Amino acid sequence: MNDPRPVAIVGLGYVGLPLALHFAEAGVPVLGLDVDTGKVDRLSRGESYILHLPSARVSAAVTAGNLRSSTDFSGVADCQAVIICVPTPLQEAAEGDTERRPDLSYILNTGRTLAPHLRTGQLVVLESTTYPGTTDTELRGVLEAGSGLQAGRDFHLAYSPEREDPGNPQSRVAEIPKVVGGLTPACRDRALELYGRVIRTLVPVADCRVAEAVKLTENIFRAVNIAMVNELKVVYTAMGIDIWDVLAAAKTKPFGFLPFYPGPGLGGHCIPIDPFYLTWKAREYGQETRFIQLAGEINTAMPAYVIRRCQEALATRGRTLHGAKILLLGIAYKPDVDDDRESPAYALWKLLAAAGAEVTFHDPHIPVIRPSREHAEFAGRRRVELTEAVVAAHDLVLLVTHHRALDYGLVARSAALVVDTRNAFANYPVAADCYFKA
């Protein structure tokens, strides 16, 4: 028999809010918890603040009484389960420190806040990406210390990695197989029971650490393969070969090849960060992750490569970056989303500004840059409108994010120079002497 009590979801961002809506739409009441009063207030009014989640869905869930939002964590005491979906960034490195250390503060502070409200028989699931051992050691420790309860005996504890794909209209929570690992078999079974109410395919694994490793492996797989094609891009460009032509032909092979695509650098809250959670933890076991570290170096070097291509493009007009007017197209880290976390656009912007360029941006989904820890200096900057006059007034247009909503034809007609990091203008008539791939 299904438990009628609500499910609490902590962290109402790009992972937590879609999950909350999915439970609510399946008839499972949800208590959404977040420390951001702005998010809570908007949800309470039935408004969405995430591009790909329409306000109509939020409003319907709120009106039906299946979605309630709050900053008061005491409501956890009346819930059947708590799912934690908070950020796991990297610590800010001190000057000269090249080691990239995980920042578990969001997870552990959430655990400390939840602990006094935990009750016997409840389930706690962590979905935030992290290194193996976080759930059954660090999180378990703060939950037990603050509640007086023992995980695996008094309450259930599990890990189930999120698999959100923002901006992909084919990505639906119910259809994405859900990996679940528990502190004990009983913990795993309780988590499977909960997720089974809303997700079609469940993938039980041996324990929390296996489930944590699954998520890291998925993201490291992407990071390493993106690094490979980024390196090939640089090599093939030097040979006069277009990497996009190579990939288009290579992916026709029906076996043994999976296409990945180059870009200006990694972005988002997963691929640029998660691999370093494993490299850091591996050192505790005396292991070096040279392959992962090399991939990180290659991907991190991509913005500098793009800037060199901009310099080469400007040199054909007898110009340098100093004093050049540069228009960045796309600030979000991936197409068709409004999420700019860890976006390579900011690395590019900083390099251009350091070289003396005047930089503006246009992104159809980001009218104003929001405050953030990663790029605080850009907060409040407003986009310019994308018109022929605006484009023509710039010395160079640098395509960073290939949103479908961008008017590529307008840019192709109006730009003096285009540097394209995504092959976005392949089907638009940009003059050959004005067009550079990076």
Structure, described:
The chain has 438 residues and is an alpha/beta fold. It folds into two domains: 7-208, NAD(P)-binding Rossmann-like Domain (Rossmann fold), CATH 3.40.50.720; 245-437, 3-Layer(aba) Sandwich (Rossmann fold). It is built from 13 helices and 13 strands. Strands 3-2-1-4-5-6-7-8 form an eight-stranded mixed β-sheet, with helices on both faces. It has a five-stranded parallel β-sheet with strand order 10-9-11-12-13, covered by helices on one side. Helix 4 (105-114) runs parallel beside helix 5, helix 7 (208-238) crosses helix 9 (274-284) and helix 10 (290-315) packs across helix 11.
